[in-house]
Specification:
Elements lengths: L1 E8 L5 H10 L6 E5 L2 H4 L5 E6 L2 E4 L4 E4 L4 H13 L8 E5 L7 H9 L1 H4 L2 E11 L3 H7 L1 H9 L2 E5 L6 H14 L4 E4 L7 H6 L6 H16 L7 H5 L2 E8 L5 H15 L3 E8 L8 E6 L2 E2 L3 E2 L10 E8 L3 H31 L1
Parallel strand pairs: 1-6, 1-7, 2-5, 2-6, 7-8, 8-9
Antiparallel strand pairs: 3-4, 4-5, 10-15, 11-12, 11-15, 12-13, 12-14
Bound molecules: guanosine-5'-triphosphate.
The site of guanosine-5'-triphosphate has 18 residues, from helix 1.
Length: 349
């Protein structure tokens, strides 16, 4: 399976600068990158040959490709060409979105297209936020706010041009918005590409632990703080905690129904569940409609066997989600106890 990284971020925030670095590094030699236009990325000094219109082979061994009729068709055609030996095989795919694009439909394309999901999986979403002008774009452009809300890694760029108190302020806003994303600074060079691209969020135990540490910090600390930008865009980030074990099937039905009803307004869900069916914790992770296969972690981080879930939503308040989940789980609990009692009675008679 080939990991896919999505690089998103508002206009001029530094996506191309980051990609250029990746494309020049030998450790990313087997990477294919999908960009909107070659012109934007300035590849002249990397170029080895043009394999065909829209596909470039770079000196580093990377393949760079512009989008064809649509993303689905572009990914499928890259995969087919690599299979037919027309371009080198690649082991990673990076997709750069346009500055005003919503990354969620890309996530959905990767996991819902049967041909694509057979070969590719989402590794993570990286979002660049301009340290210098990010505060105003986050305030004025809902797209910029959403890109940061759904990300797993946030790179605050132009730290070399930005005063420290402005950087601290923007990082605080981003932490309130997306408490489980990791946030780094960049000055346009020497990126920590390993952390940004190689640690897969949706499949790794270590990553799940890191997310939980941040989730717990959110539960204990800043959960109740209201950020003015979140109020402006009607975005909430809240965490729920449930003691005791919960019914996995009932939870799954509830989550499916909730995602169906609220659809695009649930931007991110992440959490750890103590389920009746499994001794190990189950880590869940979703972007909008798309839930990724749960990870069965090998141990309980911090030994706390409590289910904890974080939601980032638009226009949906905590008490609505909490009440409906609570009602669902209580009903499943009641049924479980009745069945247990019935089993016991049958056994005695
Ligand atoms: N000094 C400095 N300049 C940066 C940094 N990151 C990006 N830049 C500059 O900012 C400008 C925009 O960066 P790009 O990488 O093109 O941004 P982008 O997000 O790809 O832009 P669009 O594709 O237009 O949305 C370029 O002139 C970069 O050289 C940084 O960390 N420090």
């Amino acid at each position: 399976m080939i990991p896919v990284n999505i690089v998103t971020g508002f206009l001029g925030s530094g996506k191309t600068t980051l990609l250029r670095e990746v494309l020049g590094r030998p450790e990313y030699a087997d990477t294919a990158v999908i960009v909107n236009e070659f012109g934007e990325i300035g590849l002249d000094h990397f170029l080895l040959e043009e394999v065909e219109e829209g596909i470039l082979l770079l000196q580093s061994g990377c393949i760079c490709c512009t989008i064809r009729s649509d993303l689905q068709e572009t990914i499928r055609s890259l995969q087919k060409r690599a299979g037919d030996g027309l371009i080198p095989k690649f082991r990673r795919l990076i997709i750069e979105t346009t500055g005003i694009a919503d990354p969620a439909p890309i996530v959905s394309t990767i996991s819902s297209d049967p041909l694509i999901s057979k070969h590719f999986y989402l590794a993570n979403i990286v979002c660049t936020v301009d340290g210098l002008s990010g505060a105003s774009s986050l305030a004025s452009a809902p797209e910029a706010f959403k890109q940061a809300a759904v990300a797993d890694r946030i790179l605050v760029t132009k730290s070399d041009l930005t005063e420290i108190d402005i950087l601290v302020k923007i990082e605080k806003t981003l932490r309130h918005l997306n408490p489980t994303a990791s946030i780094q600074r960049s000055s346009g060079a020497e990126f920590d590409t390993k952390h940004l691209f190689s640690q897969d969020v949706f499949v790794s135990n270590a990553e799940a632990e890191d997310v939980l540490t941040k989730l717990d910090r959110h539960l204990k600390g800043s959960a109740s703080i209201q950020d003015p930008l979140k109020i402006l865009h009607d975005i909430s980030s809240f965490s729920l905690e449930f003691p005791g074990s919960i019914d996995w099937i009932a939870f799954g039905v509830w989550l499916t129904a909730t995602l169906h009803v609220h659809g695009e307004n649930i931007l991110r869900v992440k959490g750890i569940l103590n389920t009746r069916e499994s001794a190990e914790p189950v880590f869940i992770n979703g972007v909008q409609h798309t839930m990724h296969p749960p990870i069965h972690m090998d141990r309980w981080p911090n030994g706390e066997r409590t289910s904890r879930i974080i939601f980032i939503t638009r226009g949906i308040k905590k008490d609505i989600v909490q009440r409906s989940l609570h009602a669902f789980l209580s009903a499943a609990d009641k049924e479980y106890r009745q069945n247990e009692l019935a089993d016991l009675t049958t056994f005695r008679t």
